[in-house]
Amino acid sequence: MNNEPIISWKVAGIALGLLLTLATFLVKPLGVSTQFVVTDAMVTHQLAPAFAENNTYLSKYGEQSGWGVGYGWMLILGMMIGGGITAALLRKKQPLQDQGSMPAMWVVQFGSSRLKRLAAAFAGGTLLLFGARLAGGCTSGHMISGISQLAVSSFIFGVVTFAVAITTAKILYRKT
Q: Across the chain, what does the average pLDDT equal?
């Protein structure tokens, strides 16, 4: 199997920087976790307006609508489509026996159950989204947009995220 990256990390970094600059110039800084809260607030304001206004978290986002709401969902849709296209393109570059296989470290530590792997991925994603909202932004909002704007909270978020990720990996994969 060829371990050469499809694209250089330097080229990818420059492309991401240019995309971020364009997105910030055209609309606003990049970030998507707020979109879920905005959507929750919009639905709750329609179904239970009194509850939404009395809920500190939901009332903060109010009855937002317009371009900002559509932009967020288009970004999420674009990430899903882009991820699917990338997966399809990269799948062709992998030998058949490697497609869909689980990382060896995972199998050694947790076994080969696909259901367990999917449940862990879902739980991890849910915790990440909860933590992102608790921190006032997601990884793309904090680590890409926030750090590029030199926001102190984003630097703190980045350091804490990596520290927790490294510690968690060391605990989870202590057998390997």
A: 79
CA–CA gap between residue 85 and residue 55 (Å, rounded): 40
Render pLDDT for 151-160 as a digit per residue (tens, 0 to 9): 888 888 889 8
C-alpha distances in Å from residue 80, one per residue of 19, 65, 73, 75, 85: 17, 22, 11, 9, 9
Closest CA to 102 of 93, 94, 113, 92: 113
Q: What is the DSSP letter of 101?
A: P
Which residues lie closer than 8 Å to 19 by C-beta, 6 or more apart? 30
Look up the pTM and report it. 0.55
3-state helix, strand, coil in the chain (%, to 5): 75, 0, 25
| pLDDT tens digits, 125-150 | 888 778 777 777 777 777 777 877 78
Per residue, the 3-state secondary structure of 126-152, as one string, reads HHHHHHHHHCCCCHHHHHHHHHHCCCH
